[in-house]
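Example record

One chain of 468 residues, shown exactly as stored in the release files.
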Amino acid sequence: MAQRISDGRHYIDGQWVDPLEGVAAPVLEKATGEQLGRYAAGTAADVDRAMAAAVRAQRDWAAALPDERAWVLRRAGDLMQERAEEFTDVLIRETGGVRAKAAGEVAVARGRFHVAAGLTSQSAGDLLPPFKPGKTSVLQRIPLGVVAVITPWNFPVVLALRPLGPALALGNAVVMKPAELTPIAGGQMLAEVLHDAGLPPGVFNLVTGEGPAVGGPLAAHPDTALIHFTGSNEVGRLMARTAAERFTRTSLELGGDNAFVVLDDADVEQAAACGAWAAFEFQGQTCITASRHIVHRAVADRYREIVVAKARALRVGDPYREDVDLGPLISEVQRDRVHKEIVEASIAMGARLLEGGTYQGLFYRPTVLDEVTASMPAFTDEIFGPVVPITVVDSEREALELVNSQQGLVSAVYTGDVDRGVAFAEQVRCGLVHVNDAMGRPTGEDDLDEFTQRRYIGIQRTPLRYPY
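Predicted structure tokens for this chain:
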């Protein structure tokens, strides 16, 4: 299939089509500001067109043999492997991530196509115990219908595949809106792969554009059976309110102010190395980044020293053309938020700048703040930038109280005693807690429940007498 990266079109019903209002917007390389391509600036009318195609296609796709769906998904994974270098190059330029991050994302995404193919062979239901004489009760798992997938810019391919693979494997159709900052690798190129893999027209549709113009109408559409959104808490609340109007199912992965705890018996060198990586990886722009470094006073001096040294040693530059450790932030809006609303605001409240706190263009130096208190933005807000805010505590109890004072998505604790770490983790109010590690999360364990609904069929095989 001819590439459509520069066309500024939607992918609807198996075809690349112009937006109804005929407007396209540029996609910029984050390190240089050069134009990489264009995306269609869609509207609610484009969403309606895509949803109509998805509704038409979904019934036949759900009725297809499981092996047919699995073949398409496996072929899509193979095609991603064939285009891995191309995907990697576009991801570097479109997101600003370094090559290792981009290549790793492509490898994981390719694997998710193959894992999703395996879902087609899982049990589609169960036989339940009879609750009347001669009654047979069957539990079926059936597709939801049309899934609305709204994806973020930080891992645009792998976070698209997380819902897209299982949704398609289990017989749903999908209408997807990628982030407008990264619509090429995480949208247009995925559409090409699915098209070339033989996915029937209308089963996957891509509508690009701004959130209010496309994401809002997509979430609110009467044919949307599930809103799968990954992004900020603010927009997540809007998605939840939208879903409540129609009792639409939601799957929301939102941000979190994640804690990284270092107890007094920790291997400080190992903890600091992990803490620096968990804060600076991809410029700190992930929902599982370590945002609050809560360190016991007994090891705080050494922890500061190591983290500052690592921050100073990191090379910041253009990841597509240079051998660097960190690339640019995603946008000027994000840079200004990190610098003004987090770093400068916390310094004004008494935090001490140990390293960084400067930038050129979108390139922000790795930054370390000390003497951060629980009232400062560097503690209370999800940073989404390369900043380590250090808060020193005098006891494990104090550390635990500070961890639980903010909502986290993924937290971590470092200790020389694994049992102590597990006991600490069991008291953390968080969905995932690492002991002597950070970052990363399991996926796929809830796919059947998330992308299907239960249907009970009661079959009465012997006549019954009724009272009237």
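Notes: The radius of gyration is 24 Å.
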